[in-house]
Records
---
Amino acid sequence: MKTIVIATKNAGKAREYRKMLTPQGIEIKTLADFPPININENGKTFEENATIKAMTVAKQLQLPVMADDSGLVVDALDGAPGVYSARYAGDHDDAANNAKLLQKLTGVPSEQRTAHFHTTIVAVKPNGTKLVADGRVDGHILHQLTGENGFGYDPLFYVDELQKSMAELTADQKNQISHRGKALRAFMRNFNDWW
Ligand SMILES: O=P(O)(O)OP(=O)(O)OP(=O)(O)OC[C@H]1O[C@@H](n2cnc3c(O)ncnc32)[C@H](O)[C@@H]1O
Ligand SMILES: [Mg+2]
């Protein structure tokens, strides 16, 4: 069994990775399994932030670490909230973030509410060897919260290809089409070489 640490404090992300990687014989640990590590997520791009998270934790723990930096990119808002998705309306408050997004899009018609979710995964070994992969899924921002599953902006994100909100999908359905699922599948194509 391979064990990899995911440098995340987000329980929703951890759940998705665990569901996708456990069947492949990879055990997931997260920051919840270790004493607190201070991470300064101050990069300007998804890749910079994922690298900061992975490097900080790999150096501290001396273990192979992967990190996920992700976000929602809304065309009518010039790409916001983007890399600031977690802190859009304050600190990691999903309800407040969703309320702010709806408010910013007041009066914007459906056809102009195009958006995508993006994930960059960066994995690093304590010796610095790095592996990067990206994924995205396209959709629209809804006019009201729809569905109960997932986390973050999922209840406001309409998945064009499935004609449902992301929060109406089961965990398996989300993993099949999501930014994170696509990034992870791209990542796994090079995982054995990196490991
Ligand atoms: O940095 P870590 O500890 O991994 O956890 P985080 O929640 O801060 O994660 P990010 O810095 O990558 O911020 C991404 C934010 O984008 C949103 N997000 C990312 N993936 C999402 C998904 O699959 N569904 C809904 N919202 C998502 C959600 O608000 C996240 O907090
Ligand atoms: Mg974060």
---
Amino acid sequence: MSHTKTKIGIMGGTFDPIHIGHLVTAEAVRIEYNLDKVLFVPASNPPHKQGSLVTPAIHRYIMTVMATYSNPHFFVSGIELERSGLSYTIDTVRALIDCYGANTEFYFITGADAVKDLPSWREIENLLDLCYFVAATRPGCISYIDEVIKQFGAKGRRSIHRLATPELEISSTDIRERVKKGRSIKYIVPESVEDYIYKEGLYR
Ligand SMILES: Nc1ncnc2c1ncn2[C@@H]1O[C@H](COP(=O)(O)OP(=O)(O)OP(=O)(O)O)[C@@H](O)[C@H]1O
Ligand SMILES: O=C(O)c1ccc[n+]([C@@H]2O[C@H](COP(=O)([O-])O)[C@@H](O)[C@H]2O)c1
């Protein structure tokens, strides 16, 4: 009987919309950490985006499914869409542990910019006990990642890793602005997502 643990990446995000920065990052972490799969988890009510206008979750979920379906290692979970209230990662990770059992290790994937906010995440120390974090390096983020790693790295059983990934300076904010101004988003999002945005009239 094999005792090898199953390794699952969790790519959480607002995905408004999902773009190739998310996909390239998830794939790079999957390969580097030899993950069995990556679960993309669209946030229903992202805790740090209160007050900003976020597209209804169903559109963000559908675009995430479209963007990931051609990769056999990528899956989309609606776990946060089924929960009311703010989409705290600690609740998601606990639910996934319940679902997958103790023989699974979880790797929460973030862009480096998200790491600077980690100290303010709900139950961050418990979260670091339950899953690893992998921060994909983005330009200009390196020094504060080291600060956060220093602050939290030693406290949890799990740790925060940093992984240099292809640095794509792409953001959902920029994509929304491009659509609004009638500029091209070709190759920044998968074609199916581009078509969906226009068909549904998102970001006008
Ligand atoms: N270009 C990118 N490269 C690597 N990681 C990214 C990139 N864009 C976003 N991420 C990471 O993906 C996760 C989900 O991000 P999110 O869905 O908020 O996208 P975003 O582009 O940062 O959106 P917005 O511009 O609306 O804030 C976060 O951990 C974020 O740091
Ligand atoms: O749990 C928290 O306190 C928490 C605070 C901020 C962000 N997160 C999660 O981090 C992921 C990226 O968030 P965002 O806002 O950059 O899309 C997404 O899965 C959020 O639910 C989680």
---
Amino acid sequence: MLSPLKVAGKIYWLGANDRKKHLFENIWPLPNGVAYNCYLINDEKTALVDTIESGVAGDFIEKVEQLLGDRPLDYLIINHMELDHTGEVKDILKRYPNVQIIGNSKTFKVVEAYWGALANLKQVEDGDELSLGYHKLKFVMTPWVHWPETMMTYDATEQVLFSGDAFGSFGTLDGNVFDDEIDFTYYEEDMRRYFSNIVGKYANMVQKAFKKLEGVPVKSVCPVHGPVWRSNPEVVLGLYDKWSKMEAEDGVVIIYASMYGNTEQVADRIARKIAEQGVKKIRIHDVSKTHISTLINEIWRYKGVILGSCAYNSQMFPLLEQLTRELEHMGVKDRELGIFGSYSWNGGGVKNLQKFQESIGWNLVSKPAEIYGIPTEEKYAQCDELAVAMAERLK
Ligand SMILES: Cc1cc2nc3c(=O)[nH]c(=O)nc-3n(C[C@H](O)[C@H](O)[C@H](O)COP(=O)(O)O)c2cc1C
């Protein structure tokens, strides 16, 4: 028999891993899977904080029963209504029909939309408290991290923050669940990709949540995905703070769209010229090959972004257009931008990348470099100018 996985006090982890799913939200790749975390507080009064996605763990209810024994479940706290955390609610209600569901007014609107009018709802407001005996809970409304109804639950006794999607990560928990057990290097990339793909659009709301929690001592952070931070939550809090402020590393990502190789050659030329200026962090991606999830992640990581497109039916290349639309939608800020392209008659790539620049408001490092036909040493002069200007901005 394995020992229960204790976070602190009477709080236990009750999550499950999903290694089958290929795409999170049916769009974002999961090469390392994903974990769904929820937590059981086995106090004088008992409470389950969120559940997991339906069908991921066949033995979820048995695990709750194992921890509770023959005691009832008094409360089910819904911090976030999204279905990957409420997949087991119906089974919980079946097994514990007297459980009180805790949420806010916005939560209950969605609850009703999915499961009809339920009895035993306990509506809480920002700052409301609930004593379970040893653990004293407080509810903190953190709307739009990342749905309108999202809230966090703070346990003042052990200073544990149940944070919902905030401070989460992709990647399964392979035996090691807690930050003091894992090798974080394994998760860092997955965590940034989770942030940039899922939470990034609401970066300003993450900052608002930070402001709201200012001065609140936090010893453990319990998100609904990824490692559970019971020893050094500063690591995850620090990273989320940096990313949600859109702070980036002094490096550059070059993303190009090319059908016949001319635009690709320009990308390589620009990269080499930047390297000659002493910049070490340079990454090049072909927009047709690298998934948009990774491209967004790279743009969130680096301060310098260079986008290049061949002209395509008077537009930029469709996949690059999709990326730029997604970036506008996410509202990524404070990047240094270089633009280049290639064309055979009236252009279209560079022209539309310029429109993107105007709309997103990033700093253009130099005049766009646009190559007519095959790139030659003479035509490369404008690309070299762009490269040197970008390197300057990164120093
Ligand atoms: C389907 C298609 C559409 C194109 N549309 C345009 C266009 O609207 N304007 C233009 O100047 N060139 C257009 N071109 C020409 C390419 O943009 C040009 O050959 C460019 O140099 C190709 O770059 P690449 O070698 O990186 O693919 C088009 C080419 C193709 C195959």
---
Amino acid sequence: MTTTSNQHKIAILGGGNMGVALAKGLVKSGKYAGNQITITRRNIRALQDLVVQGFTITDNNSQAVREADIVVIAVLPQQLDGLLDSIRDEVNAASHLLISVVSGVSVNDITNRLDKQVQVVRAMPNTAIAIQESMTCLASNNATKENLALVKELFDTVGETIEIHEELMTSATALCACGIAFFLRSIRAASQGGTEIGFHAAEALHMAAQTAKGAAALLLATGNHPEGEIDKVTSPKGCTIAGLNEMEHAGFSSAMIKGIRLSAIKAGDLYVKSN
Ligand SMILES: NC(=O)C1=CN([C@@H]2O[C@H](COP(=O)(O)OP(=O)(O)OC[C@H]3O[C@@H](n4cnc5c(N)ncnc54)[C@H](OP(=O)(O)O)[C@@H]3O)[C@@H](O)[C@H]2O)C=CC1
Ligand SMILES: O=C(O)[C@@H]1CCC=N1
């Protein structure tokens, strides 16, 4: 495939949280139209709202694969083998490009299950894909440079992309895909603190979220190290260092590090091959 990605027909197999967020993000980017994208799931009633946005919805994976050239696999790891078994006859190694967002499943796992040397690119986005702010990690051991570039172009429309070695995909899952939940929980915790010191819940949440956005934007815009930016906030004998040290005594950094390590281990164990 050498043409640009927005000329392709895309089938997203598994219209759950990630599949739908991807579909919406692609259309929101303005580079894809709803009518280029088919979304499947077994309970298609849950996708009914998407029809008005121009998406095709169906529970027929085989037909969706037949009519697409880019096939995104977005089911849970424990649902993968059943799905692959059901589309095996439709997958054409010469004409299809597979993109898998399934955590803990390697390119080889997919080609072995399909028993076809189809090109597979693994993509690990996060849910900010719905607003074009994903950090998406990409890896493949069998896709051509052109097809990797095609997938990069597709995910570049919905955030930032980085190409990594496939063995780091489980780490990327923990840091970026699970990571968004870790940062969301810290914002929630900050807002709870904010309410305890005088703000209504909604305003505390808004203030905490904008503060977190500012912190991330500072690092991305300047390239500065977080500790350098923290040093600018912590006045001697001041209230910031008092709060920060209290958090560290309670294990703040350690909790984040341990959580990310456990997530990465778990991400590597999510897929158990079925017979
Ligand atoms: N959520 C996230 O933030 C991220 C998730 N991922 C990965 O993306 C994948 C999907 O996760 P997520 O969206 O959260 O999970 P969901 O459970 O929300 O979505 C999975 C979807 O797959 C559908 N499905 C299951 N079996 C089939 C089938 N045979 N044919 C068609 N559709 C099917 C389910 O619907 P139904 O039961 O109606 O068929 C469901 O809607 C996972 O592998 C996860 O590891 C990766 C990065 C981030
Ligand atoms: O929690 C999970 O297993 C999935 C993978 C990454 C984000 N959600």
